[in-house]
């Protein structure tokens, strides 16, 4: 079995048995399909239940395929590589999340010295990299990470060993006494924090959700992550604070930026093209719980108030081919799913594709608030409207200024549409009248 990830087979077996499950659905991200068969076989052996693997890729915690798994007869769903994001009461069946934290064997480029705990070199390297860039006496650092690295980072840098629920004390109590090292680490800095970002644990980010910090209080943000995707969310949410990325698997600390002017120009151009559209498509991603019916309803009302004809569509995955095949007459799209789809890949589509926030900015009659001021950056909008230069990263955030382009505030405005529908359906759905067909359009199509 792959040892790079903590697969929590015993805990998962316990969950399966606790729910007396006979049929178990397993959901993996693309990078873990290589171990899916082995995980399935092992869980069958350990639990006595029958397992089957869902073939669709899980891109994020939002993609939890509870309804699909239930429709296939599963008693429980095991979702790999993400932390639970969706409230339990919204799930169609019991779901167990296996975060797949990296194990000590995942960092062979930083071998331990004799008698040292396996993770000590990683913490030492990170510590040295931070000190080389940020003088402790004057630096105020905010640390962000993803679920896979979260516990290891906090153990390494804060010494918060009591917070370890996994019961594995080797890291804390090993012969290298990493705890003693970690307790010393960064303690001499002027300030260090793991920013709160509910409902995520402190210091954790998603590609669409990152805390916005006060630039008067923090000098730099350091993201301990793999790849740039999550770091970009931190950059977008904090235009006035320098953002750095530490790659544990590479052992490198780098300053990360995005070309805000280019992004703003692209997004404003997409919004300007969308504004010229007579018929606008509102497409929901039917991937797990990515789409919010309440956001759909709110954006639909804005589009109709702006005099646009609206077509509602739901697809298993939003791709240029899926949209063109389903509704070729649509002249512009608003995607209610992952906002990064429009921001990162929007220009791959032949028609303009906006996020809900951008749609409200482009078609709304009132200025957007209150998230916009917090996210205002130093990049001015080339179109002069200010909206393309602002990209709020608050898709799943609670307890911070936000707006009806995200799940929570939209649900408060449209309580009747706030829960996902339970009825079964297949194929895409369109509706011609205000308020009709939203629920049908969001039925799970996986
Ligand atoms: S909406 Fe996108 S960025 Fe956010 S958790 Fe889902 S896949 Fe990740």
From TrEMBL:
Co-factor note (free text): Binds 1 [4Fe-4S] cluster per subunit. The cluster is coordinated with 3 cysteines and an exchangeable S-adenosyl-L-methionine.
Catalytic EC class: transferase
Pathway: Protein modification; peptidyl-diphthamide biosynthesis
Annotated signal peptide: none
Protein name: 2-(3-amino-3-carboxypropyl)histidine synthase subunit 1
Cofactor(s) listed: [4Fe-4S] cluster
Documented EC number(s): 2.5.1.108
Domain of life: Eukaryota
Protein function: Catalyzes the first step of diphthamide biosynthesis, a post-translational modification of histidine which occurs in elongation factor 2.
InterPro entries referenced in this protein's UniProt entry, alphabetically: DPH1/DPH2, DPH1/DPH2_1, DPH1/DPH2_2, DPH1/DPH2_3, DPH1/DPH2_euk_archaea
Polar residues compositional bias, start-end: 420-433
Keywords: 4Fe-4S, Iron, Iron-sulfur, Metal-binding, S-adenosyl-L-methionine, Transferase
Transport found in the keyword field: no
Family in the record: Belongs to the DPH1/DPH2 family. DPH1 subfamily.
Renumbered residue ranges of the record's region Disordered: 396-446
Catalytic activity: L-histidyl-[translation elongation factor 2] + S-adenosyl-L-methionine = 2-[(3S)-amino-3-carboxypropyl]-L-histidyl-[translation elongation factor 2] + S-methyl-5'-thioadenosine + H(+)
């Amino acid at each position: 079995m792959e040892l790079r990830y903590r697969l929590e087979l015993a805990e998962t077996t316990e969950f399966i048995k606790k729910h007396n499950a006979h049929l178990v659905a397993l959901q993996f991200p693309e990078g873990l399909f290589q171990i899916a068969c082995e995980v399935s076989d092992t869980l069958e052996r350990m639990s006595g239940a029958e397992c089957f693997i869902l073939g669709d890729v899980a891109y994020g915690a939002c993609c939890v395929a509870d309804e699909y798994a239930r429709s296939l007869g599963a008693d429980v769903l095991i979702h790999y590589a993400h932390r639970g994001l969706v409230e339990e009461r919204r799930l169609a069946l019991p779901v167990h999340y296996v975060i797949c934290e990296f194990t000590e064997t995942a960092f062979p480029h930083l071998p331990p010295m004799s008698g040292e705990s396996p993770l000590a070199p990683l913490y030492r390297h990170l510590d040295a990299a931070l000190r080389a860039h940020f003088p402790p006496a004057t630096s105020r650092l905010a640390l962000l990470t993803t679920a896979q690295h979260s516990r290891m980072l906090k153990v390494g840098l804060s010494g918060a060993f009591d917070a370890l629920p996994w019961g594995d004390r080797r890291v804390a109590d090993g012969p290298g006494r990493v705890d003693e090292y970690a307790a010393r680490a960064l303690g001499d800095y002027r300030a260090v924090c793991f920013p709160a970002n509910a409902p995520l644990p402190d210091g954790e980010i998603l590609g669409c959700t990152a805390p916005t910090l006060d630039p008067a209080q923090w000098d730099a943000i350091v993201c301990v992550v793999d790849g740039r995707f999550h770091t970009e969310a931190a950059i977008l949410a904090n235009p006035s604070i320098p953002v750095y990325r530490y790659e544990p698997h590479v052992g490198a600390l780098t300053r990360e930026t995005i070309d805000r002017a280019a992004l703003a120009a692209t997004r404003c151009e997409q919004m300007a093209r969308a504004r010229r559209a007579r018929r606008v498509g509102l497409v929901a991603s039917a991937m797990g719980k990515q789409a919010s019916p309440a956001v759909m309803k709110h954006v639909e009302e804005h589009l109709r108030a702006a005099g646009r004809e609206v077509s509602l569509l739901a697809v298993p995955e939003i791709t240029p081919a899926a949209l063109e095949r389903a509704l070729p007459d649509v002249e512009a799209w608003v995607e209610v799913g992952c906002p990064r789809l429009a921001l990162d890949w929007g220009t791959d589509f032949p028609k303009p594709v906006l996020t809900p926030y951008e749609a409200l900015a482009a078609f709304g009659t009132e200025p957007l608030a209150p998230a916009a001021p917090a996210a205002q950056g130093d990049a001015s909008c080339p179109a002069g409207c200010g909206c393309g230069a602002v990209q709020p990263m608050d898709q799943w955030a609670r307890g911070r200024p936000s707006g009806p382009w995200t799940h929570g505030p939209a649900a408060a405005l449209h309580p009747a549409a706030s829960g996902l529908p339970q009825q079964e359906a297949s194929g895409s759905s369109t509706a011609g009248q205000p308020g009709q067909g939203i629920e049908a359009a969001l039925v799970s199509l996986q």
